[in-house]
Write a structure and sequence with these properties.
Layout: E1 5-9, H1 19-28, E2 36-40, H2 43-53, E3 58-61, H3 78-83, E4 88-91, H4 94-99, H5 104-116, E5 120-125, H6 129-133, H7 137-148, E6 158-162, H8 176-194, H9 196-201, E7 203-207, H10 212-219, E8 226-229, H11 236-248
Parallel strand pairs: 1-2, 1-8, 2-3, 3-4, 4-5, 5-6, 6-7, 7-8
The structure holds 1,3-dihydroxyacetonephosphate.
1,3-dihydroxyacetonephosphate is lined by residues 9, 93, 163, 168-169, 207-210, 228-232.
């Protein structure tokens, strides 16, 4: 079974001083028996973070353009992330889908660009509160997976993160049975589409108000191979207990 993954998404947070948190995280996770740990800082810190991670810690971007280069003011390509030292990129986060109108087709094009640049993708999906209340969760997630993942997924180039929008930054974490229902369905969909071996090995992360206090319960849930952590990844003191809980799970 693939190594579990604890990934931190710093979102639009972090000035140079935040790299001291990254140093603390990188120093703490040297041991081989720890899960894999990735931090995805804002673009401005990717190169410095990769330099300071010293190979203990994977570094990722939070988005990339679908094209490799060109006249796209303000955008960053997958190849540029790779060049800066990133090995991961988060794509299809609900904040990008909402703030920038990204569709599943847009996300799929970005995933392909990331793969072309040999980055591993952390692909996000998840329903809104209205969709959950309308009992559409499994359909929404299935549609996002079908539409956002191109052919050619492997356990090395893809990680899928289930992040219910109503649980992001709200302190309202999904209940383990709710997480299990979606993760089991995602696992089945991936096995159906990419074959048993690949579908079983693609890591599935839960994201949405993961904290030290709820991490153990989440990591004990069916088909949860790690977490994508927002707010609690900004401070080493908040993030490391989550990493330890994953190691112990
Ligand atoms: O969106 C998230 C990670 O990508 C989750 O954010 P929070 O952990 O702050 O709820």
């Amino acid at each position: 079974m693939a190594r579990k993954l604890a990934a931190g998404n710093w979102k639009m947070n972090g000035l140079e001083a935040a790299l001291s948190e990254l140093d603390t995280i990188a120093a703490a996770i040297g041991a081989d028996d720890m899960p894999e740990v990735a931090i995805c800082p804002p673009f401005t810190l990717v190169a410095a973070a990769a330099e300071r991670a010293k190979g203990n810690l994977a570094i990722g971007g939070q988005d990339c353009h679908a094209e490799a280069a060109g006249a796209h003011t303000g955008d960053v390509s997958a190849e540029m992330l790779k060049d800066a030292g990133a090995t991961y990129v988060i794509l299809g986060h609900s904040e990008r889908r909402q703030d920038h109108g990204e569709t599943d087709a847009d996300v799929a094009a970005k995933v392909q660009a990331a793969w072309d640049a040999e980055l591993s993708v952390i692909l996000c999906c998840g329903e809104s509160l209205a969709q959950r209340e309308a009992d559409e969760t499994l359909d929404v997630v299935r549609r996002q997976l079908d539409g956002s993942i191109p052919e050619g997924a492997t356990a090395e180039n893809l990680v899928v993160a289930y992040e219910p929008i109503w649980a992001i930054g709200t302190g309202r974490v999904a209940e383990p049975p709710q997480i299990a229902e979606v993760h089991d369905a995602m696992r089945a969909a991936l096995r159906e589409r990419f074959g048993d071996e690949t579908g079983k090995a693609i890591r599935l992360l839960y994201g949405g108000s993961v904290k030290a206090g709820n991490a153990a319960e989440i990591f004990a849930t069916s088909n949860v191979d790690g977490a994508l952590v927002g707010g609690a990844s900004l401070k080493a003191g908040d993030f490391l207990p989550i990493v330890e809980a994953l190691g112990a799970a």
